[in-house]
Amino acid sequence: MPVQILNFDYGSAIISICKLVGHPIPVDPAGSDDPAVIQMGAAVNNAFAELLTQHEWQDLTVKASLPIVGDFAGQKEKAFDLPVDFYRFIDQTQWNQGSQIPAGGPVSNQAWMCYTVRNWSPQLTLFWQMRNDKLNVLNPPFPTPVNFEYMYLTRAQVIDQDDPTLFKNTADKNGDKFFLDGYLIMLLARARYLEWKGFDSSAATRDYLAIFNSRAGSDKAAGVLSLSPSYGIPLIDPLTSVPNSGYGM
Predict the structure, then answer these.
(1) Model confidence over 131-149: pLDDT tens digits?
(2) Whole-prediction pTM value?
(3) Which among 189, 167, 191 is positioned nearest to 179, based on CA atoms?
(4) What is the widest separation between alpha-carbon atoms in the chain?
(5) Secondary structure of the chain: what % helix, strand, coil (to 5)?
(6) What is the DSSP string of 159-170?
(7) Does residue 17 contact residue 40 with C-beta atoms inside 8 Å?
(8) Domain boundaries defined on the chain
(9) 191 has which bridge partners?
(10) What distance in Å separates the CA atoms of residue 89 and residue 178, rounded to the nearest whole number?
(11) Which of 7, 86, 199, 247 is most buried by its number of CB atoms within 10 A?
(12) Residues 50, 217, 21, 190: what is their CA dihedral angle, to the nearest 10 degrees?
């Protein structure tokens, strides 16, 4: 049977808010000079930033690799730039590709100072810490780079209307599309708009929370099915790595 699915974009999100709050529908939501419509657009963009802090969304998860190499032999520490859209790491996803064991971090400030002042740090893997929006690594390898593999949450939640390869963190065109659920974004934006206008936003907030709890509850990785007679997994820690070949047999 034929199926038609309408996906939310920036313009349709604003139009939906207008319908829900009883405001006249603008012909050009993104280009409107109506103060209320402008405020609705601001609420949509505010919803992006707020949702980013509330859950580790799989749709916003990016896998990346960063070559780590020192400037000279014996360098104590070095700072590396992270992607411009970087928001924060997904916990326990940092790995040293060379040794194939987890990269140690984030190292506490106390341990970092101890390692650098005493001119000593463990050499088994990459030890790191976030500082000044950069990835700081202890004793970076030299001269051969080692890849720091990781996953992070991206701030780029919007696909540009005119360039589908351009991802950005704010919407400003009617056809700009969202990575996250557009309905969820619209519901949060409606609640924020009503709140900013001084209206009762309790019902709108309840609508948003009901959908958020449903979306966030289902937005998680599934367990790995195994035909092995054992339900265990290979043991991995910063010092040892047990191969998974033949495990549980």
Answers:
(1) 999 999 998 989 999 999 9
(2) 0.82
(3) 167
(4) 71
(5) 30, 20, 50
(6) E-SS-TT-EESS
(7) yes
(8) 10-57+180-215, 58-154
(9) none
(10) 21
(11) 86
(12) 0
